[in-house]
Amino acid sequence: VQLQASGGGLVQPGGSLRLSCAASGFTFSRATMNWFRQGPGKGFEWVSGINSGGSTSYANSVKGRFTISRDNAKNTLFLQMDSLQLEDTAMYYCVGSGTRGQGTQVTVSS
């Protein structure tokens, strides 16, 4: 199982980023997938999840600003992040099939 996140970067408050996670080694279309993050000096925090049927859920801290989606044909998970805030600064990880992939760093700074 491999999960490779990408798309992070430096963005100003109010900006947007789109994270991607390329999955391999398991039946992606049947898996519930999640995004987690870990900010500086903070614990591991669940951000959002999507099940095999496409139902989504979000942490209260990101609800209305982030959108999770998946492309089963491309075995790829996405996280569209809008209206980014300083508090969103973190390493973001995709998690699925019992595996946490390498993260991608998101830094929100003016």
Short description:
0% of the residues lie in helices and 53% in strands. The protein has 110 residues and is mostly beta strands.
Keywords:
single chain; 110 residues; mainly beta; four-stranded antiparallel sheet
SSE layout and pairing:
Elements: E1 2-6, E2 9-11, E3 17-24, E4 33-38, E5 44-50, E6 56-58, E7 66-71, E8 76-81, E9 90-96, E10 99-100, E11 104-108
Parallel strand pairs: 2-11
Antiparallel strand pairs: 1-3, 3-8, 4-5, 4-9, 5-6, 7-8, 9-10, 9-11
| Number of β-strand runs | 11
Dominant shape = globular
Cα radius of gyration in angstroms: 13 Å
Please describe the biggest sheet, giving its number of strands, its sense, and whether it closes into a barrel.
Answer: 7 strands, mixed
Cα(first) to Cα(last) distance is: 37 Å
Low-confidence stretches: none
Strand content: over 45%
What structural class do helix, strand and pairing data support? mainly beta
Mean pLDDT: 97
Q: Portion of residues in helices? A: under 10%
- Provide a count of the helices: 0
Question: Order of helices and strands, N to C?
Answer: EEEEEEEEEEE
